Amino acid sequence: MILSPEPESAIAQGESGQTGNITFRVPREIWRIIFEPLAEEPPRWLAMMSTLCKFLHAEVEAILYRKVNIETYAGAGLPFCKAVIRCPHRALAVRELDIELWEPWASLGHLARALDAVVNLQVLTIRVEEDALRLLLNVPFRLRVLHLICETAPAFVEDILARQPGLQELGVYLRSLDPRVIEHSDRPDQDEHVTISRTDILSQLRILHVLTDQFPLGSILHPYHVTHLSFGTAHHDDIAHALALFCDQLVALKVGRCIDYNCTDACFWPASMFVGIGRPLLRLQYVEVQDELDWNMDIYPDGELYIPSGATSCPAIKALIWLPYGVDLEMLEDLAVDERKSLRFYAQNLFSSWTGLERFVTVQLEDLDQVTLPGMPPDTGEGVLCKTYDVPRGFERGEDGSMVGPRATPFSLQEWRDYPRM
Fold first, then answer.
1. Pairing between strand 403-408 and 319-325?
2. What is the sign of the dihedral through the CA atoms of 264, 266, 269 and 271?
3. CB 355 within 8 A of CB 367
4. Which of 281, 300, 312, 357 is the most exposed place for a label (fewest CB within 10 A)?
5. Is the pLDDT of residue 187 over 70?
6. Model pLDDT for residues 352-367, shown as the tens digit of each residue
7. What does residue 420 show for φ and ψ, rounded to 5 degrees?
8. Torsion angle, alpha carbons of 354, 358, 362, 363, to 10
9. C-alpha distance from residue 416 to each of 227, 288, 377 (Å)
10. How far apart are CA 137 and CA 145, in angstroms?
């Protein structure tokens, strides 16, 4: 005896299961409740379960095809495209798609047909050659999240964005698509870049990620409605442009700073990037600063704190997270030669100047691993740009207003999404 769904089920298209003359009709909502928890199971286990019978096959496929990650150099791109073209119920199930085309692919026609079929797609990460991005100019789906990863920004990028009026999160990453290439070329001049400036697009955009070594933030000329900004490999001009462009609306900010030969000792401490800003960031509550320090650099705390007053910089700030690479935080905590250069002394003055600050967390970056830097696409797995971190330690404001810490404190790389907080 096999339980079968009501005939109008949009997922199960096979024959109703029967034993003798007895058939149990189960509403599709009940089947959804039964199968939904299986979404967390390993895909291999789900695939094996789908072979038990035709009905289970259809229901499990709806789970397996919900989130798809395709790497074409592994030979998986063409079979996926044929699968969703041939079986509409598979195409309708796809909600998230991560597809990588880093080398010429002879089946762009199949990809175009597959993109036409996945009408319910909501999240797309696409790593392609510039010409292949033209496929996004005439797609039927409406995305919430789009991550574009390519070697150069196409001149028609604004037309792609215009096709997605409901886009809430956008990532733009210009880099080599070949995984064998691990170094970026020299940063090109600003006038070589395509700009994003149309005011009739991105009306719902709230979260923006940019990898700025090949796409400087200066290429974005309109603030849209961005409240959460993440950008990596940032230079002084990128930071200045971001703080000026988004100053009226920014709530959470993640910055991967390049500490290079253009920097001085004034750049050592994380709050220094707010010194001298033209207008205060009135809504900014969360700041995460990840520093990439060149080992050949000699930048040390010089006794000056470079902390602007909260009223003129970040009057609403609640959390500052600092993740330096190449800095011994334990040494800074125990620095006894000159207390004015110690981490504790800096934290005390930070809480004094930023009266709304609730926590100042320091995270010691260690060896290469899988922590995604600001402005990086999700799940890159690229050790060149990813690092592990030690146990986060934090200073907090006590109930009486005094500083407490340092002590072990919880921290998540996704914490910035929890803001604004009342």
1. unpaired
2. negative
3. no
4. 300
5. no
6. 999 999 999 988 776 5
7. -80, 155
8. -140
9. 11, 8, 16
10. 16
Rounded CA-CA distance 180/140 in Å is 34
HEC secondary structure over the chain? CCEEECCCCCCCCCCCCCECCECEEECHHHHHHHHHHHHHCCHHHHHHHCCCCHHHHHHHHHHHCCEEEEEHHHCCHHHHHHHHHHCHHHHHHCCEEEEECCCCCCCHHHHHHHHHHCCCCCEEEEECCHHHHHHHHHCCCCCCEEEEEECCCCCCHHHHHHCCCCCCEEEEEECCCCCCCCCCCCCCCHHHCCCECCCCCCCCCCEEEEECCCCCHHHECCCCCCCEEEEEEECHHHHHHHHHHCCCCCCEEEEEEEECCCCCHHHCCHHHHHCCCCCCCCCCCEEEEEEEECCCCCCCCCCCCCCCCHHHCCCCCCEEEEEEECCCHHHHHHCCCCHHHCHHHHHHHHHHHCCCCCEEEECCEEEECCCCCCCCCCCCCCHHHCEEECCCEEEEECCCCCEEEEEECCCCCCHHHHCCCC
Would you state the structure tokens that stand for residue 346, as one six-digit string?
């800096």
CA atoms within 13 A on the CB side of 243: 23
Residues paired with 257 in a beta bridge: 234, 291
pLDDT tens track for 67-106: 888 765 555 677 888 889 998 989 999 999 998 775 555 5
- Give the pLDDT score at 44: 66
